[in-house]
């Protein structure tokens, strides 16, 4: 049509064809050939490597997790991108918001993996996610007063009972102070108020809860010595025949007072006084490791989807939206029945692109998942690496996994090419 000679066209296309052959065609062909040989490539095994893939538990887990990634991650990212693109059109600071949401795209997968490995740390003092979770939890649920504290077994009448509690072996009576010495207080929970060595005032059963430890040593175990500290806020229950008849909390000086009906009862310190503090969610445990990593992927790619969808939204005829509003449609109806159908081609592009992308996901899983749960978060691309280079040394199985990944991507690519061809014909 242009009058260009064939050899000229071939000459200009030759560099691209050479690169395409060297970087795409040759690796695909070699992978298919290598997948038919054993680990070291010396013996022909046919389809045995493919059979091993579908009988190995780790590879089956990788297939399952890859399917979860393909089904969940692209859909969430696309929906979030659509919501962000539509909502940011209605605010004056929409451009700044888009910049902030798109900014994670400038971060490499390696850096994002390191960031989220720290975000998901179990220790609330290090992991942001658990810092937030524990803050919300502690705002509604009272934490234990003295985690891991325990009675002084040598001198105390308190003995371990059910539910992490401690109960006296003998009964208490009015007029005889009950002494409840504890030890094992964490350094950051050490009290500062001296314990009251005098008999607590008030009628009924009285007593003192204190830290039976004197800085520098000395003193008599089981007795309140000068300088020993009071334990404030400890719940004390009076129990008769397995029923709690009264309860009280120790004051600032460690003393408590129970009513007369506690006479003849046993004293119990409930386990809630000593329970370990709430440390949040095990984000990288076997159950949540895959959703947690998908969350980091959504953080990275939501900006990509938002920018593409916003570009498509900018080309939507506003007259159609206004016509729908004039006809009485509310904003939700306009969004669902007008905006989304008009954006359908863009949404398909974003969805297909992300589906291809998540099939190759490797970096985030390899970096974020700790070694004990890496098998639970395994995906096909990671299994390919582990089988070939990560200690497995089986290049035959690794090549077979690569071929399977290619076969999984091909249908998605075929759908995308058909869509592009139809749009070109329009």
Automatic annotation (TrEMBL):
Gene3D superfamilies: Immunoglobulins, MetI-like. Keywords: Cell membrane, Membrane, Transmembrane, Transmembrane helix, Transport. Residues 63-416 form the ABC transmembrane type-1 domain. The chain crosses the membrane at residues 7-28, 67-87, 99-120, 298-317, 338-356, 395-417. One of its GO terms (biological process) is transmembrane transport. GO terms for cellular component: plasma membrane. It is a multi-pass membrane protein. It is found in: Cell membrane. Pfam families: BPD_transp_1. The keyword Cell inner membrane does not apply. It comes from the Bacteria. Belongs to the binding-protein-dependent transport system permease family. PANTHER family: BLL4140 PROTEIN (PTHR43227), DIACETYLCHITOBIOSE UPTAKE SYSTEM PERMEASE PROTEIN DASB (PTHR43227:SF8). This is Multiple sugar ABC transporter permease protein. It comes from Streptomyces avermitilis (strain ATCC 31267 / DSM 46492 / JCM 5070 / NBRC 14893 / NCIMB 12804 / NRRL 8165 / MA-4680). The lineage of its organism: Bacteria, Bacillati, Actinomycetota, Actinomycetes, Kitasatosporales.
């Amino acid at each position: 049509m242009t009058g260009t000679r064939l050899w000229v066209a071939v000459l200009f296309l030759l560099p691209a064809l050479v690169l395409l052959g060297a970087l795409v065609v040759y690796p695909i062909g070699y992978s298919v050939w290598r997948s038919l040989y054993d680990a070291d490539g010396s013996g022909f095994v046919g389809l045995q490597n493919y059979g091993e893939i579908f009988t190995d538990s780790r590879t089956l887990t990788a297939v399952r997790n890859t399917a979860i990634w393909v089904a969940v991650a692209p859909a969430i990212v696309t929906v979030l991108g659509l919501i962000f693109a539509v909502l940011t059109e209605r605010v004056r600071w929409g451009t700044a918001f888009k910049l902030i949401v798109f900014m994670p795209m400038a971060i490499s997968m390696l850096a994002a993996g390191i960031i989220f490995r720290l975000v998901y740390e179990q220790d609330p003092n290090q992991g942001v996610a658990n810092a937030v979770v524990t803050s919300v939890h502690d705002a509604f649920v009272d934490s234990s007063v003295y985690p891991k504290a325990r009675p002084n077994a040598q001198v105390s009448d308190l003995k371990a009972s059910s539910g992490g509690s401690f109960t006296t072996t003998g009964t208490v009576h009015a007029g005889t102070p009950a002494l409840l010495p504890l030890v094992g207080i964490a350094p950051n929970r050490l009290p500062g108020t001296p314990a009251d060595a005098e008999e607590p005032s008030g009628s009924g059963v009285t007593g003192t809860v204190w830290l039976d430890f004197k800085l520098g040593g000395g003193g008599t175990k089981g007795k309140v010595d000068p300088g020993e500290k009071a334990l404030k806020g400890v719940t004390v229950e009076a129990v008769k025949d397995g029923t709690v008849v009264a309860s009280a909390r120790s004051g600032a000086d460690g003393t408590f007072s129970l009513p007369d009906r506690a006479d003849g009862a046993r004293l119990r310190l409930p386990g809630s006084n000593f329970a370990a503090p709430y440390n949040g969610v095990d984000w990288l445990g076997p159950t949540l490791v895959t959703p947690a990593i998908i969350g980091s992927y959504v953080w990275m790619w939501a900006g990509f989807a938002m920018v593409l969808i916003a570009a498509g939204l900018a080309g939507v005829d506003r007259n159609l939206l206004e016509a729908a509003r004039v006809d009485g449609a509310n904003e939700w109806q306009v969004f669902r029945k007008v905006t989304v159908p008009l954006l359908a081609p863009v949404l398909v592009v974003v969805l297909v692109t992300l589906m291809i992308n998540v099939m190759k996901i490797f970096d985030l899983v390899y970096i974020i998942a700790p070694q004990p749960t890496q098998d639970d978060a395994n995906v096909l691309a990671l299994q390919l690496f582990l089988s070939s280079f990560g200690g497995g040394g089986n290049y035959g199985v690794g090549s077979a996994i690569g071929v399977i990944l290619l076969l999984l991507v091909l249908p998605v690519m075929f759908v995308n090419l058909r869509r592009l061809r139809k749009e070109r014909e329009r």
